[in-house]
């Protein structure tokens, strides 16, 4: 079996069937990654036994306390044996057979980038862009990103939240940019993301998204950018209220003060120049 020096890292919690689907997709790639490491979050008594049916060797990490996807990724990045990390969710999987060969080509040709976002396609969507282009980016998607281990080990890492929507990737991107690293977006290879329709509308997810909308600027934005915090919260509230999610808005707002207080010691704002660069890159990508 031909392998390439890549560590695939996947956090999971009580979704063994979809995880096995992802592992099957990884196993069908040529070449294969040198290792696959899976982090099983706390109170999951299903996944380890199910992985006896995995089509390739899997190294397992466990925790007795809930870390969420971000905390799981921290442990996975620390434990990985190789410098090139392919970060997937348990429901996101490679589409291209030469997926890992393409990744090695990108990382070898562009050592200036610390992260490469891979395009993800929801469920039955068909990839429409098969070109091999690369552009500088302001962020990435945790379900489909290539990371350099030496870069992510140079920053503080993800905040361990049970629901990290609106926080996880942007927080890490800001940390990497602030440390002087550059991020990229490539048009190939591709990832299939089997996220459930309406998943983001789940009350716990919607509530957490509102809270995290306040937490991110509280932890990372320098003055005067932190003054944007109320505006961002209002925009997220307006989005949720548009869909009639009054209960989650009320519970989310009530949770914000306590959450900010709980994480106050982790506040480490980036430089104003980093925020300027981040905003400029975001605007250029969204044009």
Weakly predicted, low-confidence segments = none
Which homologous superfamily in CATH is the superfamily of the largest domain?
Spore Coat Polysaccharide Biosynthesis Protein SpsA, Chain A
> What is the number of E strands?
11
Strand order of the largest sheet: 3-2-1-4-9-6-10-8
> Rg from C-alpha positions?
19 Å
Order of helices and strands: EHEHEHEEHEEEEHHEEHHHH
Which topology of the largest domain does CATH recognise? Spore Coat Polysaccharide Biosynthesis Protein SpsA, Chain A
Distance between the termini: 43 Å
Count of discrete domains: 2
Mean pLDDT: 95
Which features characterize this protein?
287 residues, alpha/beta, Spore Coat Polysaccharide Biosynthesis Protein SpsA, Chain A, 2 domains, 3-stranded mixed sheet, 10 helices, globular
Can you give a write-up of this model?
The protein is an alpha/beta fold. The chain folds into two domains: 3-193, Alpha-Beta Complex (Spore Coat Polysaccharide Biosynthesis Protein SpsA, Chain A); 200-270, no CATH class. The protein has ten helices and eleven strands. It has helices at residues 16-27, 47-50, 68-79, 99-109, 149-152, 168-178, 203-220, 229-242, 246-262, 272-285; strands at residues 3-12, 32-40, 59-62, 84-88, 92-94, 113-117, 120-122, 134-137, 144-148, 182-186, 191-193. The strands form two sheets. An eight-stranded mixed beta sheet has the order 3-2-1-4-9-6-10-8, sandwiched between helices. Strands 5-11-7 form a three-stranded mixed beta sheet. Helix 2 links the parallel strand 2 (32-40) and strand 3. The N and C termini lie far apart (43 Å). The mean pLDDT is 95.
């Amino acid at each position: 079996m031909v392998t390439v020096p890549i560590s695939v890292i996947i956090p999971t919690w009580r979704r063994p069937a979809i995880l096995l689907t992802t592992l099957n997709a990884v196993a069908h790639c040529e070449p294969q990654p040198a290792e696959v490491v899976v982090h099983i979050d706390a109170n999951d008594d299903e996944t380890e036994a199910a992985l006896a049916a995995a089509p390739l060797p899997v190294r397992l990490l466990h925790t007795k306390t809930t870390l969420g996807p971000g905390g799981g990724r921290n442990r996975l990045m620390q434990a990985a044996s190789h410098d090139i990390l392919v970060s997937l969710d348990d429901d996101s999987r490679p589409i291209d057979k030469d997926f890992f060969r393409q990744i090695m080509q990108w990382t070898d040709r562009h050592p200036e980038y610390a992260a490469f976002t891979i395009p993800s396609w929801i469920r039955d969507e068909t990839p429409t862009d098969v070109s091999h282009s690369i552009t500088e980016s302001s962020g990435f998607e945790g379900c489909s990103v290539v990371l350099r281990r030496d870069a992510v080990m140079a920053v503080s890492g993800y905040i361990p939240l049970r629901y990290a929507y609106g926080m996880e990737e942007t927080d890490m991107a800001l940390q990497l940019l602030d440390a002087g690293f550059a991020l990229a977006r490539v048009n190939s290879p591709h990832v299939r993301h089997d996220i459930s329709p309406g998943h983001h509308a789940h009350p716990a997810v919607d509530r957490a998204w509102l809270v995290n909308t306040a937490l991110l600027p509280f932890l990372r934005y320098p003055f005067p950018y932190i003054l944007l915090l109320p505006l961002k919260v209002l925009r997220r509230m307006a989005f949720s209220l548009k869909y009639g999610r009054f209960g989650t808005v009320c519970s989310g707002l009530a949770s914000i003060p306590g959450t900010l207080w709980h994480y106050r010691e982790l506040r480490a704002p980036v430089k104003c120049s980093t925020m300027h660069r981040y905003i400029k890159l975001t605007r250029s990508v969204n044009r």
